[in-house]
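User: Hey, quick favor. My workstation is busy. Could you predict this chain's structure for me?
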Amino acid sequence: MSILQLIERLLSIPSISGFEDEFSELVASLIEEKVDELEVDRIGNVIAKIEGEGYERVLVDAHMDEVGFIVKAIDENGFLRFTNLGGVDRRILPAQRVIIHSSKGKIKGVIGAVPPHFTSEEERRKVPDIEDLFIDIGASSREDVVEAGVQVSDPISFDRGLDALIGKRICGRGFDNKLGCAVAIETIFNIERSKLHADVYFSFTVEEERGLRGVRPVAFKVNPTIAIPLDTTGAADYPKVKPYISSVSLGKGPVIRAADRKFVADQSVKQFLMNVAEKNGIPYQIGVVMGTTNATAVQLAREGVATCPLCIPLRYAHSPVEVADLDDIENTVRLLVHALISIKSFNQLSKKF
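Assistant: No problem, here it is.
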């Protein structure tokens, strides 16, 4: 299975934040024969271990959840009211196609948008609040909705799959963070365990998009000495982005995330990843970026963890049309594989070799 086929497989199952169970089962089934230990904890995190020589405990984490929505009310005319699960830009919501994941299966719908014929010029300039939006599934009454199997608390995802753009660029929903999951799985498939000095734990965690919630019990349980979380990070190489807001671009390699809104990387792990990339001819970027990742929570677990994330550049994050470059994804796998087999001891990390 190629990395593109793996991404397409992962994208086939939505994993809205708080509703990751089916995706969790898929991940476990993909890696169970490639790891020494595997468990799914009480909240749905997948935790796998590949045994090395035990000199260190390294945690590689990728959150499974993607942003989405949840049904919060059904009106008498059969329109669904909803709210977001994770950060979604409400400017992009009107006229989007969505899927309600009901007890009777997938129900297609559209986020209603009042056409310009029915609005004033002033109204057309405003970005609607999510409380003013609704989903039309074709129903004429609340009874129609109930009969279709839709109920309050059903999760909702964007109705988008994977599309190939020109070159090696791809487009879809849920790249944040199914691309990180793909990198972790591909690393499990490709790493030569006989070369591992450290014991390596891979976690696929829930609810990152709602407060970095899922990774906390994992970090406590594993008690790693070193952590390399995997995520995406915003590229800024397209029109209308303010100059110097970020130096990250598509196609220039994985991002070693030096700092973000809530996190500063451990300098020894950051330097180690840079050294590994340079030794192996892998392009990379240093990122000082907005937002945050599970690294924020992992770094402060127990006595503290030496942590630095690896991120895949991504355009249009938290939208149904996220864009990434396959070269960046493949180079993230390369860098992670080389890094994991190079870790011998914590004290060795920042040394040139």
